[in-house]
Amino acid sequence: MDDRRAPSPPDATRWPNRFAGLGPAFHTPMRGAGLPDPHWVATSDDAAAVLGWPADWWQRWPEALAVFSGNSTWEGMAPLASVYSGHQFGVWAGQLGDGRALMLGEVDTPQGAMELQLKGAGRTPYSRMGDGRAVLRSSIREFLCSEAMHHLGIPTSRGLCLTGSSLPVRRERVETAAVVTRVAPSFLRFGHFEHFYHHDRHEELRTLAEHAIAHHFPACRQAEQPVLALLGEVTERTARLIAQWQAVGFCHGVMNTDNMSLLGLTIDYGPFGFLDVFDPQHICNHSDEGGLYAYARQPKVGWWNLHAFAQALVPLVGQGQGTPEDVAAIRAALARYETVFAQALAAQMRAKLGLREAREGDQDLVNDWLRLLETQKVDYTIAMRRLCDFSPRDAGPVRDVFMDREAFDAWAARYAERLAAEHSIDTERQATMRRANPRVVLRNHLAETAIQRAEQGDFGEVQRLLAVLSRPFDDDSGTAADAGFPPDWAQQLSVSCSS
Fold first, then answer.
1. Are strands 73-74 and 5-6 parallel, antiparallel or unpaired?
2. 402 and which of 117, 223, 331, 408 could share a cystine (Cβ 3.0–4.6 Å)?
3. 333 falls within a domain
4. How many domains would you assign to the chain?
5. Is the model's pTM score more than 0.90?
6. Where does ATP bind (predicted)?
């Protein structure tokens, strides 16, 4: 690795590095192992704009390739790997940490301080038996999905850039190494708090909570019990996030507590997937043999994970003794999850069906629609997008995706009656629905095509797909194939925890 430190880029000279200032109990300062002979794979102009950087930053600043491949750092960066613990697949896994992630530093931006984090820059003290590397395949998926989720309006870490190398890495097969740079206001996880709670380190736990409140939840400082306010805010953000996942048909795949963002962001893209056929029991992670994180189970998993997070906060609530009063207060904060999730999902589904106002019977209408999609094995994204063309006088192309036309017609009659009840205007409703139902999502076969070409040295499809996914609601975004039914070979694709 090159130990040189290059001057900071002129548009990003201040690095507050607030998490680094917490001390050695929270992280290990270190440099990345880097990639030999790195090359650019892709960059996101939109993510760069969040940092206040020009679109050509990666060309303008000569040291950028070395920095974002883990080979060098800019002046002001304070690279580190953080320690955390967590529950994995519902089982306490003990100490974990940034096994293949490395925070480069925290940089001031027009939108506030942002953390820059490399994924795949080599081993850290928390790598356990791993090599600390990421492969090109998984890195492309994470880079593309981070940006895709943002443009779908779903809170997420961002993908700034992706670099690659000929360095061989063994997974199910020998692949090549890559490093993806992630951007977020914070990568704090439920597992950071669990780590200090389960190791009886309550002073560090308090320090971490104070840090989170001061820098990420400042409104909580005004509450009588700031930590309870923090729990309530995290609960609501998590509920709203998972409601958005369910509405768009996104499956995270590994909802361990160490993969749950304190800020309610989608982070740690691994074996994720978007639904093709609407199947509530769909398991996107080939490693999840028991289906713990199946699509329909995600809301309850989020609720369970919040309880694990709340347990870690018990020493900071009241006198820290877990009295009945303190437990009741914690339960009251957690109880907001069910209400907020239900309200958020209902609002999302009303928007997807073009319903302006909430009325009695709407939930039954939505549930029966989803049940119809399930029983008829209909593609979720395509059905929702085609529903945008529906009118009470002409069902349009959505009717064609159902084998049982009579079953659809029965539901459509109820839908038409519901639209008439609020005097819905077709053109206005259809335009609104097109802003709620994406034409294109990152399906596995689209990512796989980009991966296969990239593994042959052609990165053009990665950048093309990035552009398509940045306009997921537009009628002219991408090709007909991008928005079409998955090819037959897509059914053979599978992703696992090594993906």
1. parallel
2. 408
3. no
4. 3
5. yes
6. 97, 99-100, 119, 131-132, 182, 189, 268
